[in-house]
Amino acid sequence: MQELEKLQESKKGEKAKSKVRVSLGDPQARVMHQPDRGLALSYNAQISTDAAQGLIVGVAVTQAAEDSAQLLPAVDRIEQRLKKKPRQMVADGGYTTRDNIEKMAKREIDFLGSMGREEMASGATAPHRLAPSAFVYQPETNRYVCPEGKPLRPQGRHHSKKKQGLVTYLYEANFKDCQPCLRKPECCPENQSQGRGLIRRVENAAVVAFREKMATDQAQAQYRRRSRVAEFCHAWIKSKLGLRQFHVRGLVKVQTELLWACLTYNLQHWARLNKLRAAPAAS
Questions:
Q1: Are 20 and 31 in contact (CB under 8 A)?
Q2: Considering the entire predicted model, what is its pTM?
Q3: How far is CA 246 from CA 35, 113, 186, 243, in A?
Q4: Do 101 and 111 touch, CB atoms closer than 8 A?
Q5: I want to staple 85 with a disulfide (CB 3.0 to 4.6 A). Which of 9, 43, 79, 246 is the partner?
């Protein structure tokens, strides 16, 4: 009987852990990852900075842990406040998604960001296996040809929901061609009922153009400016104004505190700019 009661209590504890828990101190805050890899109740502060003068032109606080969905709202805020859309936006990898790249291209805004090449053009393979690069793609017939001259024909395609703008095509060889092949041990040793398969990933035109642009020296030079433009105001607010964490609770109050901090930074920075303009040029 005691064992049954313990089991029931254990199940109740597991159910309680699985339920969504809300902070009693600040119900609107959300648990987010911290720079030290820990977790803490937080808000996500979004600040947009003008690259020409270093002034803050957009401020928002959200409950979203990820930054990717905050790029377009930042553009909307700038356009609403300045009555014109920005000609160029520069953001780090947290904002650089295929979806954002495509939407920024539709808005005709020059977008610069950091996007890794996480996929091979024809798929990845296990170590010490015949690499996908050994197979030749023939676009006129939409098929691959293996080193032994056998075709891998298309088997369908898949649109990724997580990675919008990316279409994956699957190709597969005939099992009768692979089974007697002398290179099967290095090509597809585990395949016992089907032939060697390959995947070909195709990105939309906007992402292709973005990758080509970011490969240029000019785009990389412009992107390298991002850290000193965007991070300077963050560092100033933290070090000079002492706002390393919010002192109030609730989304509206937190937004107000951040807005006052950014306004203070702009006033101080404006004063610094005026002093620089008034200072005599060095001989």
A1: no
A2: 0.73
A3: 16, 29, 58, 7
A4: yes
A5: 79
SS3 115: coil
State the residue for tokens 């979203």: 64
Tens of pLDDT along 61-117?
Answer: 999 999 999 999 999 999 999 999 999 999 999 999 999 999 999 999 999 999 876
Is the Cβ–Cβ distance between 7 and 31 less than 8 Å?
no
Record the tokens describing residue 134, joined without a space. Answer: 């050994």
- Beta strands 88-90 and 110-112: pairing type? parallel
Helices and strands (H, E) in the chain, number of each type: 9, 11
The one-letter amino acid at 47: I
Q: What domains can be seen in the chain, in order of their start residue?
A: 30-116+215-276 (3.30.420), 132-203 (no CATH)
115's tokens: 């996007």
For residue 253, the one-letter residue type is K
